[in-house]
Protein backbone atom coordinates (compact mmCIF):
# COMPACT_ATOMS: atom_id res chain seq x y z
CA UNK A 1 0.00 0.00 0.00
CA UNK A 2 1.40 3.45 -0.95
CA UNK A 3 2.57 5.59 1.94
CA UNK A 4 0.22 8.49 2.64
CA UNK A 5 1.74 11.88 1.83
CA UNK A 6 2.20 14.12 4.87
CA UNK A 7 0.36 17.43 4.99
CA UNK A 8 3.58 19.44 5.32
CA UNK A 9 7.19 19.01 4.21
CA UNK A 10 9.27 21.63 6.02
CA UNK A 11 12.84 22.40 4.96
CA UNK A 12 15.26 24.85 6.59
CA UNK A 13 17.64 26.57 4.16
CA UNK A 14 19.33 29.86 3.24
CA UNK A 15 17.45 32.51 1.34
CA UNK A 16 17.90 32.97 -2.40
CA UNK A 17 17.08 36.06 -4.41
CA UNK A 18 14.46 34.11 -6.37
CA UNK A 19 12.53 33.88 -3.07
CA UNK A 20 11.95 37.63 -3.20
CA UNK A 21 8.33 37.73 -4.39
CA UNK A 22 7.30 35.43 -1.55
CA UNK A 23 9.39 37.40 0.98
CA UNK A 24 7.69 40.62 -0.08
CA UNK A 25 4.26 39.04 0.24
CA UNK A 26 4.97 37.62 3.70
CA UNK A 27 6.60 40.73 5.16
CA UNK A 28 3.76 42.83 3.80
CA UNK A 29 1.16 40.64 5.51
CA UNK A 30 2.95 40.33 8.85
CA UNK A 31 4.17 43.92 9.23
CA UNK A 32 1.52 45.82 7.26
CA UNK A 33 0.73 47.96 10.34
CA UNK A 34 4.39 48.78 10.98
CA UNK A 35 6.47 49.04 7.82
CA UNK A 36 6.53 48.58 4.06
CA UNK A 37 7.64 45.23 2.61
CA UNK A 38 11.33 44.65 1.94
CA UNK A 39 12.58 45.85 -1.45
CA UNK A 40 14.33 43.50 -3.86
CA UNK A 41 17.67 45.35 -3.73
CA UNK A 42 17.62 45.17 0.07
CA UNK A 43 17.18 41.40 0.14
CA UNK A 44 19.81 41.02 -2.60
CA UNK A 45 22.30 43.07 -0.57
CA UNK A 46 21.63 41.03 2.58
CA UNK A 47 22.25 37.79 0.73
CA UNK A 48 25.42 39.16 -0.85
CA UNK A 49 26.92 40.56 2.37
CA UNK A 50 25.94 37.81 4.83
CA UNK A 51 24.36 34.81 3.09
CA UNK A 52 24.73 32.53 6.15
CA UNK A 53 22.56 34.86 8.22
CA UNK A 54 19.53 34.95 5.89
CA UNK A 55 17.47 31.85 6.67
CA UNK A 56 14.03 30.56 5.72
CA UNK A 57 11.73 27.60 6.13
CA UNK A 58 9.90 26.32 3.07
CA UNK A 59 6.94 23.98 2.89
CA UNK A 60 6.89 21.92 -0.29
CA UNK A 61 8.91 24.59 -2.10
CA UNK A 62 7.09 27.67 -0.77
CA UNK A 63 8.74 29.97 1.79
CA UNK A 64 6.61 30.21 4.93
CA UNK A 65 8.99 31.75 7.50
CA UNK A 66 12.02 34.07 7.26
CA UNK A 67 14.81 35.25 9.61
CA UNK A 68 17.10 38.14 8.64
CA UNK A 69 20.35 38.63 10.56
CA UNK A 70 23.60 40.60 10.60
CA UNK A 71 26.86 40.66 12.61
CA UNK A 72 27.89 43.60 14.79
CA UNK A 73 30.44 44.54 17.42
CA UNK A 74 29.14 44.55 20.99
CA UNK A 75 30.45 48.12 21.41
CA UNK A 76 27.93 49.30 18.82
CA UNK A 77 25.04 47.35 20.27
CA UNK A 78 25.69 48.57 23.83
CA UNK A 79 25.21 52.20 22.80
CA UNK A 80 21.68 53.54 22.71
CA UNK A 81 20.45 52.94 19.20
CA UNK A 82 17.35 52.80 17.06
CA UNK A 83 16.34 50.25 14.47
CA UNK A 84 17.36 52.66 11.71
CA UNK A 85 20.78 53.23 13.32
CA UNK A 86 21.67 49.58 12.78
CA UNK A 87 19.48 48.38 9.93
CA UNK A 88 19.31 51.71 8.10
CA UNK A 89 18.30 51.35 4.48
CA UNK A 90 18.06 47.57 4.78
CA UNK A 91 21.17 46.73 2.76
CA UNK A 92 23.32 45.61 5.74
CA UNK A 93 25.82 48.45 5.39
CA UNK A 94 26.63 48.07 9.07
CA UNK A 95 27.19 44.33 8.87
CA UNK A 96 30.64 43.67 10.32
CA UNK A 97 32.20 40.33 9.30
CA UNK A 98 34.50 40.71 12.32
CA UNK A 99 31.65 41.40 14.74
CA UNK A 100 31.23 39.39 17.93
CA UNK A 101 27.39 39.20 18.05
CA UNK A 102 24.58 38.20 15.75
CA UNK A 103 21.92 40.90 15.56
CA UNK A 104 18.42 39.75 14.74
CA UNK A 105 16.87 42.11 12.22
CA UNK A 106 13.52 40.47 11.77
CA UNK A 107 11.56 37.22 11.85
CA UNK A 108 8.22 36.77 10.14
CA UNK A 109 6.05 33.69 9.78
CA UNK A 110 3.10 33.10 7.47
CA UNK A 111 -0.01 33.64 9.64
CA UNK A 112 -1.44 30.39 8.25
CA UNK A 113 1.47 28.54 9.92
CA UNK A 114 1.11 30.06 13.39
CA UNK A 115 1.30 27.45 16.14
CA UNK A 116 3.77 25.22 14.27
CA UNK A 117 6.78 26.60 16.21
CA UNK A 118 8.50 27.83 13.06
CA UNK A 119 9.82 30.86 14.92
CA UNK A 120 11.54 28.56 17.39
CA UNK A 121 13.08 26.58 14.53
CA UNK A 122 14.49 29.78 13.07
CA UNK A 123 15.93 30.82 16.43
CA UNK A 124 17.49 27.40 16.84
CA UNK A 125 19.13 27.90 13.44
CA UNK A 126 20.40 31.32 14.54
CA UNK A 127 21.83 29.79 17.71
CA UNK A 128 23.57 27.09 15.69
CA UNK A 129 25.04 29.76 13.40
CA UNK A 130 26.18 31.77 16.42
CA UNK A 131 27.97 28.75 17.86
CA UNK A 132 29.57 27.80 14.53
CA UNK A 133 30.94 31.35 14.12
CA UNK A 134 32.12 31.35 17.76
CA UNK A 135 30.23 34.56 18.58
CA UNK A 136 29.37 35.77 22.07
CA UNK A 137 25.65 35.61 21.51
CA UNK A 138 22.56 36.93 19.75
CA UNK A 139 21.04 40.35 20.43
CA UNK A 140 17.68 41.64 19.27
CA UNK A 141 15.51 44.70 19.70
CA UNK A 142 12.29 42.99 20.71
CA UNK A 143 8.99 44.69 19.94
CA UNK A 144 6.18 44.91 22.51
CA UNK A 145 3.11 44.84 20.23
CA UNK A 146 0.59 44.40 23.05
CA UNK A 147 1.88 47.37 25.03
CA UNK A 148 -0.50 49.70 23.21
CA UNK A 149 -3.41 48.02 24.99
CA UNK A 150 -1.92 48.86 28.40
CA UNK A 151 -0.11 52.15 27.73
CA UNK A 152 -2.73 54.25 29.55
CA UNK A 153 -2.53 52.01 32.63
CA UNK A 154 1.23 51.60 33.04
CA UNK A 155 4.63 52.62 31.77
CA UNK A 156 6.81 50.35 29.64
CA UNK A 157 8.95 49.22 32.61
CA UNK A 158 5.89 47.96 34.50
CA UNK A 159 4.58 46.29 31.35
CA UNK A 160 7.87 44.44 30.90
CA UNK A 161 7.85 43.34 34.56
CA UNK A 162 4.36 41.91 34.21
CA UNK A 163 5.24 40.08 31.01
CA UNK A 164 8.22 38.56 32.83
CA UNK A 165 5.96 37.37 35.66
CA UNK A 166 3.46 36.07 33.07
CA UNK A 167 0.68 38.35 34.27
CA UNK A 168 0.50 39.71 30.70
CA UNK A 169 1.20 37.87 27.46
CA UNK A 170 3.05 39.66 24.69
CA UNK A 171 3.41 37.69 21.43
CA UNK A 172 6.99 38.87 20.87
CA UNK A 173 8.42 39.55 24.33
CA UNK A 174 6.92 36.41 25.88
CA UNK A 175 8.27 34.32 23.01
CA UNK A 176 11.78 35.71 23.43
CA UNK A 177 11.79 35.09 27.18
CA UNK A 178 10.68 31.49 26.64
CA UNK A 179 13.45 31.10 24.07
CA UNK A 180 16.27 31.71 26.62
CA UNK A 181 16.70 35.42 25.93
CA UNK A 182 17.19 37.75 28.87
CA UNK A 183 16.39 41.46 29.08
CA UNK A 184 19.26 43.94 29.04
CA UNK A 185 17.43 47.28 28.94
CA UNK A 186 14.58 49.32 27.49
CA UNK A 187 15.12 51.04 24.15
CA UNK A 188 13.15 54.29 23.78
CA UNK A 189 12.24 55.48 20.32
CA UNK A 190 13.63 52.28 18.82
CA UNK A 191 11.12 52.03 15.99
CA UNK A 192 8.86 55.08 15.90
CA UNK A 193 6.64 53.59 13.18
CA UNK A 194 5.75 50.75 15.56
CA UNK A 195 2.68 52.38 17.06
CA UNK A 196 1.59 49.10 18.65
CA UNK A 197 4.70 49.24 20.87
CA UNK A 198 4.56 53.05 21.13
CA UNK A 199 8.06 53.04 19.61
CA UNK A 200 9.57 51.06 22.49
CA UNK A 201 11.60 47.88 22.26
CA UNK A 202 13.53 45.69 24.67
CA UNK A 203 17.21 44.95 24.07
CA UNK A 204 17.47 41.22 24.66
CA UNK A 205 20.41 38.81 24.59
CA UNK A 206 20.97 35.10 24.21
CA UNK A 207 24.38 34.10 25.55
CA UNK A 208 26.44 31.51 23.70
CA UNK A 209 27.86 29.47 26.57
CA UNK A 210 30.10 27.63 24.08
CA UNK A 211 31.90 30.87 23.13
CA UNK A 212 35.67 30.64 23.42
CA UNK A 213 37.70 33.81 23.50
CA UNK A 214 40.51 33.76 20.94
CA UNK A 215 43.75 35.64 21.25
CA UNK A 216 45.21 37.83 18.56
CA UNK A 217 48.57 36.11 18.90
CA UNK A 218 47.39 32.72 17.70
CA UNK A 219 44.73 32.37 15.04
CA UNK A 220 43.29 35.85 15.52
CA UNK A 221 43.23 39.06 13.49
CA UNK A 222 45.72 41.76 14.41
CA UNK A 223 44.40 45.29 14.90
CA UNK A 224 47.63 46.90 13.62
CA UNK A 225 48.92 45.82 10.21
CA UNK A 226 52.57 46.62 9.46
CA UNK A 227 52.91 46.91 5.69
CA UNK A 228 56.14 47.02 3.70
CA UNK A 229 56.04 48.50 0.19
CA UNK A 230 58.93 47.83 -2.19
CA UNK A 231 59.94 50.42 -4.77
CA UNK A 232 61.81 48.12 -7.14
CA UNK A 233 64.81 48.94 -9.33
CA UNK A 234 64.49 47.56 -12.84
CA UNK A 235 67.84 46.16 -14.00
CA UNK A 236 69.18 43.19 -15.92
CA UNK A 237 69.62 39.89 -14.10
CA UNK A 238 71.77 37.19 -15.62
CA UNK A 239 69.62 34.34 -14.33
CA UNK A 240 66.32 33.61 -12.60
CA UNK A 241 68.32 32.70 -9.47
CA UNK A 242 69.94 36.16 -9.41
CA UNK A 243 66.51 37.75 -9.70
CA UNK A 244 65.09 35.68 -6.83
CA UNK A 245 68.09 36.54 -4.67
CA UNK A 246 67.15 40.22 -4.94
CA UNK A 247 63.51 39.37 -4.18
CA UNK A 248 64.58 37.46 -1.07
CA UNK A 249 66.73 40.40 0.05
CA UNK A 250 63.64 42.63 0.25
CA UNK A 251 61.49 39.93 1.88
CA UNK A 252 64.22 39.39 4.48
CA UNK A 253 64.68 43.14 5.05
CA UNK A 254 60.98 43.91 5.44
CA UNK A 255 60.39 40.87 7.68
CA UNK A 256 63.24 42.03 9.96
CA UNK A 257 60.93 44.92 10.88
CA UNK A 258 58.25 42.35 11.84
CA UNK A 259 56.02 43.43 8.98
CA UNK A 260 52.80 41.57 8.22
CA UNK A 261 52.65 42.22 4.47
CA UNK A 262 55.21 43.04 1.78
CA UNK A 263 54.02 44.39 -1.58
CA UNK A 264 56.00 44.17 -4.84
CA UNK A 265 55.21 46.05 -8.11
CA UNK A 266 53.49 45.01 -11.32
CA UNK A 267 55.56 42.93 -13.77
CA UNK A 268 58.58 43.27 -11.50
CA UNK A 269 60.16 40.18 -13.09
CA UNK A 270 60.32 42.01 -16.44
CA UNK A 271 64.15 42.36 -16.20
CA UNK A 272 64.34 38.68 -17.14
CA UNK A 273 62.75 39.44 -20.49
CA UNK A 274 66.15 40.45 -21.90
CA UNK A 275 66.82 36.70 -22.20
CA UNK A 276 64.37 36.69 -25.10
CA UNK A 277 65.70 39.69 -27.05
CA UNK A 278 65.48 37.74 -30.30
CA UNK A 279 61.73 37.39 -29.88
CA UNK A 280 58.92 39.85 -30.49
CA UNK A 281 57.42 41.52 -27.38
CA UNK A 282 54.35 39.25 -27.73
CA UNK A 283 56.52 36.11 -27.80
CA UNK A 284 58.94 37.34 -25.13
CA UNK A 285 56.15 37.94 -22.60
CA UNK A 286 54.87 34.42 -23.14
CA UNK A 287 58.39 33.07 -22.64
CA UNK A 288 58.66 35.09 -19.43
CA UNK A 289 55.50 33.34 -18.21
CA UNK A 290 57.52 30.14 -18.13
CA UNK A 291 59.08 31.33 -14.83
CA UNK A 292 55.75 32.01 -13.11
CA UNK A 293 55.02 28.67 -11.42
CA UNK A 294 58.52 28.49 -9.96
CA UNK A 295 58.35 32.12 -8.81
CA UNK A 296 55.08 31.49 -6.96
CA UNK A 297 56.42 28.34 -5.28
CA UNK A 298 59.61 30.03 -4.12
CA UNK A 299 57.81 33.12 -2.84
CA UNK A 300 55.35 30.93 -0.96
CA UNK A 301 58.33 29.20 0.67
CA UNK A 302 59.71 32.64 1.60
CA UNK A 303 56.36 33.66 3.10
CA UNK A 304 56.53 30.72 5.48
CA UNK A 305 60.27 30.98 6.17
CA UNK A 306 60.21 34.72 6.90
CA UNK A 307 56.75 34.71 8.56
CA UNK A 308 55.28 37.38 6.30
CA UNK A 309 52.41 37.60 3.81
CA UNK A 310 53.84 38.33 0.37
CA UNK A 311 51.90 40.10 -2.39
CA UNK A 312 54.06 39.07 -5.31
CA UNK A 313 53.48 42.07 -7.51
CA UNK A 314 52.24 40.76 -10.83
CA UNK A 315 53.67 38.36 -13.40
CA UNK A 316 52.50 36.95 -16.75
CA UNK A 317 50.74 33.58 -16.71
CA UNK A 318 49.47 31.33 -19.49
CA UNK A 319 46.31 29.54 -18.41
CA UNK A 320 44.69 26.37 -19.65
CA UNK A 321 42.71 28.31 -22.26
CA UNK A 322 46.01 29.35 -23.91
CA UNK A 323 45.51 33.06 -23.16
CA UNK A 324 48.14 35.23 -21.46
CA UNK A 325 47.06 36.90 -18.21
CA UNK A 326 48.59 39.33 -15.73
CA UNK A 327 48.28 37.80 -12.25
CA UNK A 328 49.20 38.82 -8.70
CA UNK A 329 49.61 36.13 -6.03
CA UNK A 330 48.95 36.45 -2.32
CA UNK A 331 51.32 34.04 -0.59
CA UNK A 332 50.24 33.74 3.03
CA UNK A 333 52.63 32.92 5.83
CA UNK A 334 50.47 29.95 6.81
CA UNK A 335 51.38 28.23 3.53
CA UNK A 336 48.20 28.97 1.57
CA UNK A 337 47.99 31.15 -1.53
CA UNK A 338 45.45 32.81 -3.81
CA UNK A 339 45.46 35.01 -6.89
CA UNK A 340 43.94 38.14 -8.38
CA UNK A 341 44.03 38.63 -12.15
CA UNK A 342 44.21 42.03 -13.79
CA UNK A 343 40.72 42.71 -15.12
CA UNK A 344 41.26 45.73 -17.38
CA UNK A 345 43.99 45.60 -20.01
CA UNK A 346 45.38 48.83 -21.48
CA UNK A 347 45.43 49.24 -25.26
CA UNK A 348 49.25 49.06 -25.26
CA UNK A 349 49.30 45.86 -23.17
CA UNK A 350 46.85 44.23 -25.53
CA UNK A 351 48.66 45.36 -28.66
CA UNK A 352 52.24 44.62 -27.54
CA UNK A 353 51.79 41.51 -25.40
CA UNK A 354 48.36 40.12 -26.21
CA UNK A 355 47.22 40.16 -22.57
CA UNK A 356 43.68 39.05 -21.69
CA UNK A 357 41.65 40.42 -18.77
CA UNK A 358 40.59 38.19 -15.87
CA UNK A 359 36.99 37.54 -14.84
CA UNK A 360 36.92 37.42 -11.03
CA UNK A 361 37.22 40.07 -8.31
CA UNK A 362 38.30 38.82 -4.88
CA UNK A 363 38.68 39.92 -1.29
CA UNK A 364 41.24 37.90 0.67
CA UNK A 365 41.15 36.80 4.30
CA UNK A 366 44.47 37.34 6.07
CA UNK A 367 45.65 37.48 9.67
CA UNK A 368 45.47 41.29 9.46
CA UNK A 369 41.91 41.34 8.12
CA UNK A 370 40.38 41.46 4.67
CA UNK A 371 42.55 42.86 1.87
CA UNK A 372 41.97 43.50 -1.80
CA UNK A 373 44.36 43.62 -4.75
CA UNK A 374 43.90 45.72 -7.90
CA UNK A 375 46.65 45.67 -10.52
CA UNK A 376 47.59 49.11 -11.89
CA UNK A 377 44.91 50.11 -14.46
CA UNK A 378 42.21 48.40 -12.39
CA UNK A 379 42.49 51.04 -9.65
CA UNK A 380 41.27 53.60 -12.20
CA UNK A 381 37.86 51.89 -12.19
CA UNK A 382 36.15 52.94 -8.93
CA UNK A 383 33.48 50.25 -9.13
CA UNK A 384 36.00 47.52 -8.32
CA UNK A 385 37.21 48.96 -5.03
CA UNK A 386 33.61 49.75 -4.06
CA UNK A 387 32.60 46.12 -4.62
CA UNK A 388 35.60 44.96 -2.56
CA UNK A 389 34.63 47.36 0.23
CA UNK A 390 31.12 45.94 0.25
CA UNK A 391 32.75 42.56 0.91
CA UNK A 392 34.66 43.87 3.92
CA UNK A 393 37.99 45.06 2.47
CA UNK A 394 39.96 47.47 4.69
CA UNK A 395 43.36 47.46 2.96
CA UNK A 396 43.77 47.74 -0.82
CA UNK A 397 47.12 46.76 -2.37
CA UNK A 398 47.99 48.12 -5.82
CA UNK A 399 51.06 46.85 -7.71
CA UNK A 400 51.62 49.12 -10.73
CA UNK A 401 53.99 49.77 -13.61
CA UNK A 402 54.11 53.21 -15.23
CA UNK A 403 56.67 54.65 -17.61
CA UNK A 404 56.07 58.40 -17.24
CA UNK A 405 55.09 60.79 -14.49
CA UNK A 406 51.69 61.58 -15.98
CA UNK A 407 50.90 57.84 -16.16
CA UNK A 408 52.02 57.48 -12.54
CA UNK A 409 49.82 60.39 -11.46
CA UNK A 410 46.76 58.67 -12.94
CA UNK A 411 47.41 55.67 -10.71
CA UNK A 412 48.33 57.75 -7.67
CA UNK A 413 45.35 60.08 -7.76
CA UNK A 414 42.90 57.29 -8.43
CA UNK A 415 44.41 55.32 -5.52
CA UNK A 416 43.99 58.34 -3.25
CA UNK A 417 40.38 58.67 -4.35
CA UNK A 418 39.75 54.99 -3.61
CA UNK A 419 41.11 55.48 -0.07
CA UNK A 420 38.82 58.42 0.61
CA UNK A 421 35.63 57.22 -1.03
CA UNK A 422 35.89 53.69 0.41
CA UNK A 423 37.31 54.67 3.83
CA UNK A 424 40.21 52.24 3.53
CA UNK A 425 44.00 52.16 3.30
CA UNK A 426 45.59 51.95 -0.15
CA UNK A 427 49.25 50.99 -0.74
CA UNK A 428 50.82 51.39 -4.19
CA UNK A 429 54.11 49.82 -5.33
CA UNK A 430 55.93 50.60 -8.59
CA UNK A 431 59.30 50.29 -10.30
CA UNK A 432 62.06 52.75 -11.16
CA UNK A 433 65.07 52.65 -13.49
CA UNK A 434 65.30 51.18 -16.97
CA UNK A 435 66.09 48.06 -18.97
CA UNK A 436 68.16 49.09 -22.01
CA UNK A 437 67.53 47.43 -25.37
CA UNK A 438 64.24 45.84 -24.25
CA UNK A 439 61.30 46.93 -26.39
CA UNK A 440 58.23 48.27 -24.47
CA UNK A 441 60.19 48.14 -21.17
CA UNK A 442 62.51 51.12 -21.57
CA UNK A 443 61.74 53.43 -18.61
CA UNK A 444 59.79 53.42 -15.36
CA UNK A 445 58.56 56.13 -13.01
CA UNK A 446 57.35 55.51 -9.46
CA UNK A 447 56.76 57.12 -6.11
CA UNK A 448 55.49 54.32 -3.90
CA UNK A 449 53.07 55.45 -1.21
CA UNK A 450 50.46 54.46 1.37
CA UNK A 451 47.25 56.51 1.45
CA UNK A 452 44.64 56.82 4.20
CA UNK A 453 41.11 58.14 4.53
CA UNK A 454 40.80 61.87 5.12
CA UNK A 455 39.47 62.47 8.63
CA UNK A 456 40.69 63.58 12.06
CA UNK A 457 42.20 60.24 13.09
CA UNK A 458 44.47 60.10 10.03
CA UNK A 459 47.38 62.19 8.69
CA UNK A 460 46.33 65.72 7.69
CA UNK A 461 47.21 65.08 4.03
CA UNK A 462 45.83 61.52 4.01
CA UNK A 463 49.30 60.13 3.22
CA UNK A 464 50.76 57.64 5.69
CA UNK A 465 54.10 57.30 3.85
CA UNK A 466 55.68 57.95 0.46
CA UNK A 467 59.00 57.21 -1.16
CA UNK A 468 61.46 59.41 -3.01
CA UNK A 469 60.87 59.18 -6.79
CA UNK A 470 63.41 57.25 -8.81
CA UNK A 471 65.11 55.50 -5.87
CA UNK A 472 65.02 51.82 -4.95
CA UNK A 473 63.72 51.68 -1.39
CA UNK A 474 61.06 50.34 0.95
CA UNK A 475 58.34 51.93 3.04
CA UNK A 476 57.40 50.42 6.41
CA UNK A 477 54.07 51.68 7.73
CA UNK A 478 51.73 50.72 10.58
CA UNK A 479 48.03 50.77 9.64
CA UNK A 480 45.42 50.74 12.39
CA UNK A 481 42.60 48.58 11.04
CA UNK A 482 40.39 49.39 14.05
CA UNK A 483 40.41 53.06 12.99
CA UNK A 484 38.80 52.06 9.70
CA UNK A 485 35.95 50.34 11.55
CA UNK A 486 35.45 53.40 13.77
CA UNK A 487 35.56 55.77 10.80
CA UNK A 488 32.90 53.84 8.92
CA UNK A 489 30.63 54.04 11.96
CA UNK A 490 31.39 57.49 13.36
CA UNK A 491 33.41 59.49 10.80
CA UNK A 492 32.77 63.12 9.88
CA UNK A 493 31.33 61.78 6.63
CA UNK A 494 30.49 58.13 5.94
CA UNK A 495 30.67 57.50 2.23
CA UNK A 496 29.72 53.82 2.30
CA UNK A 497 26.78 54.42 4.62
CA UNK A 498 25.53 57.52 2.79
CA UNK A 499 25.24 55.93 -0.66
CA UNK A 500 21.74 56.39 -2.10
CA UNK A 501 21.07 52.80 -3.05
CA UNK A 502 17.43 53.72 -3.43
CA UNK A 503 18.56 55.69 -6.50
CA UNK A 504 21.45 53.59 -7.83
CA UNK A 505 23.16 50.33 -7.06
CA UNK A 506 26.26 48.32 -7.93
CA UNK A 507 26.60 44.58 -8.34
CA UNK A 508 29.01 42.02 -9.79
CA UNK A 509 27.22 40.28 -12.65
CA UNK A 510 28.81 36.87 -11.97
CA UNK A 511 27.53 36.69 -8.36
Key traits:
Acyl_CoA_acyltransferase, hydrolase, alpha+beta, 15 helices, 511 residues, Aminopeptidase, hydrolase activity, Nitrilase/N-carbamoyl-D-aminoacid amidohydrolase, C-N_Hydrolase
Overall radius of gyration: 27 Å
Topology-level CATH name of the largest domain: Nitrilase/N-carbamoyl-D-aminoacid amidohydrolase
Structural class: alpha+beta
Give the full name of the CATH homologous superfamily of the largest domain: Carbon-nitrogen hydrolase
The top-level CATH class of the largest domain is Alpha Beta
Our estimate of the beta-strand percent is 15-25%
Characterize the biggest β-sheet. 9 strands, mixed
Please provide a brief summary of the model.
The protein is an alpha+beta fold.
